[in-house]
Amino acid sequence: MPRNPLHKPLAKPVTAITLGAGSRGNVYGGFAEKYPDQLDIIGVAEHIAIRNERYAKKHQIDDKNRFDTWERVFERPRFADAVIISMPDNLHYEPCMKALEMGYDILLEKPIAPTEKECRNILAMAKKTGRIVAVCHVLRYAPYFVKMKELLQNGTIGEIISVQHFEPIEHIHMSHSYVRGNWHNSKQTTPIILAKSCHDLDIIKWMLNKPAKQISAMGDLKWFRKENAPQDSTARCTDGCAIERECPYSAIRIYHDNKQRLYVFDLPEDKAKQPEAIMEYLKTTNYGRCVYKMDNDQPDHYITNIRFGDNITASFSMEAFTSYAGRRTRVMGAMGDMVGDMEELVITDFKTGKQTKLVPKAEDVADYKNSGHGGGDWNLAADFVQAVAQQNPKLLTSTIDESIESHIMCFMAEESRKYNKVMDVKM
Predict the structure, then answer these.
(1) Phi-psi label, residue 130: left if phi above 0, alpha if psi -120 to 50, beta otherwise
(2) Can you name the residues that pair with 217 across neighbouring β-strands?
(3) How far apart are CA 347 and CA 356, in angstroms?
(4) Which CATH class is domain 140-225+296-364+404-424?
(5) Cβ atoms of 404 and 126 closer than 8 Å
């Protein structure tokens, strides 16, 4: 996948303010570090002091441009080209509306907002102000999915009949993010179909390039429930739990022993102090609680069926209980089929029986492939910078106009799941 041919040399870097210096804020911050001639982050709003301090130091942000709340950013006249919104899901709507009102272009982490009404309000405000809102549907920028869409739209397997798409969350990721973590309660954040899998409904829709017509869904929280707690288990893994050493979800094993997913802990720089700090987090935060005794409500298995235009059908399955991650996709066409796992794409031609294997990658942008989502994170950042610099949203494939339909699909899927009915998708 070559660089976007619409990219032009920049006279100066685009300036941005990051709202939320957590994991996703640091992903786009990482792009700015690597390519300071393209993106210069000059402000940050983050209420966790250590994250604010580290982010400001990393990007050499003046003290006057450091804020402990997003509201304080907008007490000043506009002082950057763009705002990057990478705060929790339930904190997307208000800052986005305020930033649009003040004339900022926006890189908006998905989901757009927690409700359909708020999503539509942001779309209306973007149209009213004429500002750019790029939604971080980063899979659209991953070379693997870009190539898949290109092949499908070029008729490589003939007329498309149906799609099967699978997202294996991976069991530790599920316990970390959707049982113990920030997205464990759908009422406080967003439903898992929106928080995790709006990427997937979006990529199916984008590759097919057809409108969604109907959607139905089923799924539930089956395993991570109080009634499944082992006998003699305790409220926390650190409370002397009798089965902690044999539990696959032991917080002590995951975080302290195996050092997995520690980015949420904001550990001290002194490595000698880190084990003690990890144990303190496990004793005082949700990350140390028993996975069977949380106040979580997110489904751990979820299936969605969609009918698109031209009667193309698609099935999507999101599963917590896998030992692996990485999306899998099968596309069935009248003249061939396509099977892929984000590493390799295999196309079979029915007429000749020939198989073609492809490993898509970006040309001359080796660093991009090391960013998240198969290179999609930084490819999106590069396109966003160009769109802002040129004031041309057509450089982006995931403007809010393009991305809102898959959000509507997610809201409809969740309503279908909860109320056991087939939903018409109406834009």
Answers:
(1) left
(2) 304
(3) 5
(4) alpha beta
(5) no
| Three-class DSSP labels, 307-333 | EEHHHCEEEEEEECCCCCCCCEEEEEE
pLDDT in tens, 89-133: 999 999 999 999 999 999 999 999 999 999 999 999 999 999 999
Q: Where in the chain is the domain with CATH 3.30.360.10?
A: 140-225+296-364+404-424
**CA–CA separation, 334 vs 417, rounded Å?**
31
For residue 160, the surrounding DSSP H or E stretch is: strand 160-168
**CB neighbour list of residue 15: distance below 8 Å, 6 or more residues apart:** 40, 41, 42, 80, 81, 82
Q: What is the pLDDT of residues 184-240, one digit of tens each?
A: 999 999 999 999 999 999 999 999 999 999 999 999 999 999 999 999 999 999 999
Cβ neighbors of 357 (< 8 A, separation 6 or more) are 344, 345, 346, 347
Domain at 14-137+379-401: CATH architecture: 3-Layer(aba) Sandwich (3.40)
Dihedral of alpha carbons 173, 174, 180, 185, sign: positive
Q: Which of 330, 392, 322, 297 is nearest to 6 (CA)?
A: 392
Residue type, 227: E
CATH 3.40.50.720 residue window(s) in the chain = 14-137+379-401
| Whether residue 369 has pLDDT greater than 70 | no
Instruction: Please indicate, yes or no, whether the overall pTM of this predicted structure exceeds 0.90.
Output: yes
Task: Judge contact between 327 and 268, C-beta under 8 A.
Answer: no
